[in-house]
Design goal:
The complex is a heterodimer of chains A (about 230) and B (about 80). With about 230 residues, chain A is of the alpha/beta class. Chain A is built from five helices and eleven strands. Chain A has a single domain, classed as 3-Layer(aba) Sandwich (Rossmann fold). A nine-stranded mixed sheet of chain A has the order 2-1-3-4-11-10-9-6-7, with helices on both faces. In chain A, strands 5-8 form a two-stranded antiparallel sheet. The chains are: A alpha/beta (about 230), B alpha+beta (about 80).
Chain lengths: ~230, ~80
């Protein structure tokens, strides 16, 4: 399995995700945002960070990068695309995923571990979470408040396109377990074809039991053992 | 020609910054303020003299870059 991590000016989780991918035997290469060609990849990752200093709107300037057309072609052919944190913001700005990420409801940068319920197990990113569907991952963002209008929320719920929801350790999902004001506690969503996942939490920060936890490992194992 | 664009959040979208400004103004003694919404303002110099073409270009750039129409509205002024 081959992956490409796209590096934008201001990306700061690109090395972390590369380490995670390599740990799980995914052969990775770094790709500069201004490259015209995407190397042959099964998976493309848009990493976390603050691309272009979050100018205009988070992820907005990066969504106009030269490499983006290549990435869109990659997904049209069924290739996998994962956007984490700023990567998720870039995905909504390109229109590859619906909705948008607004500033956190309380206007504060949030950096902490949160519990999540994996609400869709039937995709290449999450099928390994059948073993464990309430997990702990780290979030670190200022604009993680997922906003969707009522029609879109209904579509996401009806078609089961929500991958993760903020919960408590028992999987309860309510306002008290919502860190940033996201509609329906949404932490990550899939496109209709389920080959694109955008998520605010950082799975790449939970791959070492000694340092943090291993709940991110299950995602990389899922990717390596594609369905 | 000079064009300007104002981008504001749609009514149904929560504007926490606007809310804080509103509350602060109230704390400062402006009791008769009922609402504040924060937006963005752009001034653009265009090498184009035809106002109809200017309007067309302004519409495009507002849609494609300056606003995200999922959550924002824009207003264009020409000249």
């Amino acid at each position: 399995m081959k992956s490409s991590v796209i590096v934008f000016p201001g990306s700061n989780c690109d090395r972390d995700i590369a380490v995670a991918l390599e740990k799980f035997k995914i052969k990775n290469q770094m790709v500069w945002h201004n490259d015209a060609n995407l190397p042959k990849s099964d998976l493309v990752v848009l990493p976390g960070g603050f691309s272009y200093g979050d100018y205009l709107r988070t992820g907005c300037i990066a969504s106009k990068s030269r490499i983006i057309d290549e990435i869109i072609n990659h997904t049209k052919k069924g290739g996998l695309l994962l956007g984490i944190c700023n990567g998720f913001q870039i995905l909504t700005e390109t229109g590859l995923l619906p909705g948008i990420l607004l500033r956190n409801k309380e206007l504060k940068f949030i950096s902490k571990n949160v519990f999540l319920k994996v609400t869709n197990l039937d995709n290449n990113f999450c099928h390994n979470y059948k073993k464990k569907n309430i997990i702990k991952l780290h979030i670190a963002h200022n604009e993680g408040n997922y906003f969707a209008n009522n029609d879109l929320l209904k579509k996401l719920e009806d078609q089961n396109l929500i991958a993760f929801k903020y919960s408590d350790r028992n999987g309860n999902i309510n306002d008290n377990t919502n860190p940033n004001g996201s509609s329906n506690n949404i932490a990550g969503i899939l496109n209709s074809e389920k080959n694109i996942l955008g998520m605010m939490p950082h799975p790449e920060r939970m791959i070492e039991p000694l340092l943090s936890g291993e709940d991110g490992s299950l995602m990389f194992e899922s990717l390596f053992n594609k369905k | 020609m000079k064009i300007s664009a104002i981008v504001t959040l749609k009514k149904e979208v929560l504007d926490p910054q606007g809310k804080v400004v509103n509350q602060t103004l109230k704390n400062m003694g402006y009791k008769n303020i009922s609402d504040v919404r924060q937006g963005k303002y752009f001034e653009i110099e265009l090498d184009e003299k035809d106002p109809i073409k200017c309007k067309e270009i302004a519409e495009q750039i507002c849609k494609k870059l300056l606003s995200n129409t999922v959550i924002e509205n824009y207003k264009i002024n020409i000249g």
